[in-house]
Every structure is written in C-alpha cells, then in structure tokens.
Write a structure and sequence with these properties.
Strand 7 and strand 8 form a beta hairpin. It contains seven helices and eight strands, in the order αβαβαβαβαβαβαββ. The protein has a single domain, classed as Rossmann fold (3-Layer(aba) Sandwich). It is globular, with a radius of gyration of 17 Å. The protein is about 40% helix and about 15% strand. Helix 2 packs across helix 7 and helix 5 packs parallel to helix 6. The structure holds NADP nicotinamide-adenine-dinucleotide phosphate (NAP). The site of NADP nicotinamide-adenine-dinucleotide phosphate has 26 residues, from helix 2 and helix 5.
Length: about 250
C-alpha cells in the first residue's frame, strides 16, 4: 500500500493539536508513504506536531493561517519550488461557534469570523492551490465538512432542531455548496473535489465517554476521498465512504 502512494505530496490544514483530526489524517497519509505538509496557525504548533510524526516519513511543518492570504501564497510558492505540484489538499481547519448560538441573536461580527475561516479560508486554499493540484495526475481536494451543514443528517443536521452553533452550521452548508461548484468547474481536469463529514469524533476532552470515535477511525473516510481512483466520484458529500444527504 505504501509504495502505491509514494511520491504523492499532501497538505493538511488546521493541524493544531495531537488529539485533533488533522494530526490523525497526517499520520495516516505518512503511513501510506506520502510526503506531508503539516500546517497549523503557528510555527510552534506545526513544528511540535511534525516533530512527533517525523519517524513516520517525510513531514514538513508550515505555519498557515488560512485567513491570511500572504501565508497561503507563501506555502504554495514553497511547494511549487520544492515539488512543482500538489496531489492532495485536505481542508481540515475550521472555526467553530458556541453550542446553543442562535441565528436571531448571534453577534454578526462573531458569525462573520467563523465564515472567514471555515468558508473563505477554505475557498482561498482551494483557489491558491488549484494550479498546483492541476499539475498532479490525480489531484484531490477533501473539504472536511460536517453533518451540521446537511439538510438530511438525522443526528446533527440543519432540520433536526439541535443546538449546534448556527454560524458553524451555516459555514459548513456553504462549504458543501462551494465543493459542488468548484468540483463541477474542474470536471475536465484530473482534480476531484469532495466534502467529507468525519462523524462524531473524540477530538475534545471527554469525547470518548460521550460516544465519539477515535480520530484515527474518522480519518479513514477522509483518506479514502484523498486517494480516490480516476473513476471515483467528485462533487459528492460522504461519511466513511458512503454518500451523505446534502
Ligand atoms: N470533532 C467532530 O466531532 C467533528 C464533526 C464534524 C466535523 N468536524 C470537522 O473536523 C475538522 C477538524 O476538527 P477537530 O474536531 O479536529 O477540531 P479542532 O481541533 O477544532 O480543529 C480545527 C483546527 O482548525 C484550526 N484553525 C482554526 N482557525 C484556523 C485558521 N484561521 N487557520 C488555520 N487553522 C485554523 C484550529 O487551530 P487552533 O488549534 O490553533 O485553534 C484547529 O487545529 C473541522 O473542520 C471540524 O469542523 C469535526
């Protein structure tokens, strides 16, 4: 398996803590033989986490705040000079909003800051990295989304009346829409773009006791979308490799 993906270059955003999904994704990609740019908001976070994974393979730390245009372009420029292509972009970074936050009363500046990261930051990553992904013979973008942005998810979806933060839910619904628009634009190229919900994942304290699953389990569905074959789907929304209702 590792040989199959050797030489592939991946970038993962929002790898800020060892218990996060981004860290588990990086570990899984390295185990498959890929070269990985592990990115976090600060170089201290990225260096510490890349150091912890360095025995697994080629992992390079970068500080990339996805809301910062200059940092994103610098990352692209470095990858261009070093590899001349990017095979996999995993947009894992997101800003969450408070449980119970309501549409009627949320401070709009706070809501905008969520969309600035989760929607526009991810959009920026896609725009800036697309020319490099088109240089790959199997470019893949995975937008890590959430059932919270789905109309059909029975547990966390928009119509369930649950208390998921409104701006977070709206940002993920918009991210799903962006995924479709971008993926259809790229249909003539080798780039496939899908949204993936990782499922309820224990990336926070007490998560396992609440029934959330370990990050390594949730990372599998993301790696699946990142390694789709040429006849695999694009413009879809998945969890664990199975379609999820929009
Ligand atoms: N855990 C779940 O049950 C669950 C369910 C559905 C979807 N998801 C999605 O899975 C992804 C990973 O979530 P997680 O559970 O691992 O939680 P998380 O720790 O909150 O991960 C989000 C990461 O994004 C980073 N980030 C925030 N703003 C950023 C920015 N401007 N630039 C770059 N990075 C930024 C955070 O960095 P800091 O550490 O510096 O704050 C953090 O490392 C997210 O997209 C989340 O929406 C998670």
């Amino acid at each position: 398996m590792a040989e199959q993906f050797e030489g592939r270059v991946a970038l993962v955003t929002g790898v800020g803590k060892p218990t996060g999904l981004g860290y588990a994704i990086c570990e899984a990609l390295l185990t498959q033989g890929m070269s990985v740019y592990l990115t976090a908001r600060t170089s201290a976070q990225a260096e510490a986490l890349a150091g912890a994974l360095s025995a697994k393979g080629w992992v390079h730390p970068l500080s990339v705040d996805i809301a910062d245009d200059r940092q994103v372009r610098e990352a692209a420029s470095l990858i261009e000079k070093t590899h001349g292509k990017l095979d996999i972009l995993i947009n894992n970074a997101a800003k969450t909003s408070a449980y119970g936050e309501t549409a009627a009363e949320v401070d709009l500046a706070a809501a905008q800051s969520v969309l600035d990261v989760t929607l526009f930051g991810t959009w920026r990553m896609c725009q800036v990295m697309l020319p490099l992904l088109r240089q790959s013979d199997a470019g893949r973008i995975v937008n890590v989304s959430s059932g919270a942005g789905s109309h059909g998810d029975p547990a966390f979806g928009l119509t369930t009346g649950n208390q998921m933060g409104t701006s977070y839910a709206v940002s993920k619904a918009a991210l799903n829409a962006l995924t479709v628009k971008l993926a259809l634009e790229e249909e003539g190229s080798s780039v496939k773009i899908n949204a993936v919900c990782p499922g309820f994942t224990a990336t926070f304290e007490g998560g396992l006791d609440m029934g959330a699953r370990p990050p390594a389990e949730s990372a599998k569905g993301i790696v699946w979308a990142a390694t789709l074959p040429a006849d695999g789907p694009t413009a879809g929304f998945f969890r664990d490799g199975a379609p999820l209702a929009w």
